[in-house]
Amino acid sequence: MQRKNFAVPVKLWASGCAIVGISMTSNTVLTCILALTGFLYLSVQHNWRALKSFGVFYIAMAVLLYLIRYQGLHMVVFSEFYVLMFWNLFAVFIVGWDLITTPPGELSAFMSRIHMPTAGILGLLVMFRFFPTMKAELKSVWLSMRNRGLAAPCQLLLHPVVSCEYVLVPLLLRCLQIADQLSVSAVARGAEASGKRGSYYEKDMTIKDWSCLILWSVVTFLFLWIGGVRA
């Protein structure tokens, strides 16, 4: 069965192209080209859940930009600057999220192949898995609070300090438990062992991977050529 997700080198290359394109362009409006390429990038991998979430958020940003530019909308809580910033960085959000949600086995297999030190591999894996792990833990804490009737709007408004305590205390305890579990797991999997390492997750580049790599290179070049490079 052919795998649906791209290899790690392609994901790194896509992230690099998005960052270079956005940091060098002088036309923030045309960043939609990179964003649409990011949506195509997710659809090829059949990542429909992320595609739906990012699509709804991107449409909301587009509507807000239209209202700000042509209808004179002025927001009090959420500044117009942040709307433009999110619009400009959207392609980086897409490819970055796809990279950090890559299975840790695939990331470690690639980094071992390029002979990265073990300490660097473990550090990057922890960094990449931090946001998805915290998202799952916050969801668990919120469900637990809701089951106990502690997530009601009146409870949150009347007792904000206590509500924050209900979230932070179990979250910090879970962080300590996860840190201990990571240490035990790393030792059990031979992180301290020397010698050549193998992996079940090691993947070779396919035609689809090379095609995506070339696509991102071409799109980034055309994007900078059409939109111009910042002086």
UniProtKB/TrEMBL annotation:
The chain crosses the membrane at residues 12-44, 50-69, 81-100, 112-131, 210-228. It is a multi-pass membrane protein. Keywords: Cell membrane, Membrane, Transmembrane, Transmembrane helix. It is found in: Membrane. InterPro entries: ABC/ECF_trnsptr_transmembrane (IPR003339), ECF_transporter_component (IPR051611). It holds the Pfam family CbiQ. GO terms for cellular component: plasma membrane. Its main location: membrane. This is Energy-coupling factor transporter transmembrane protein EcfT.
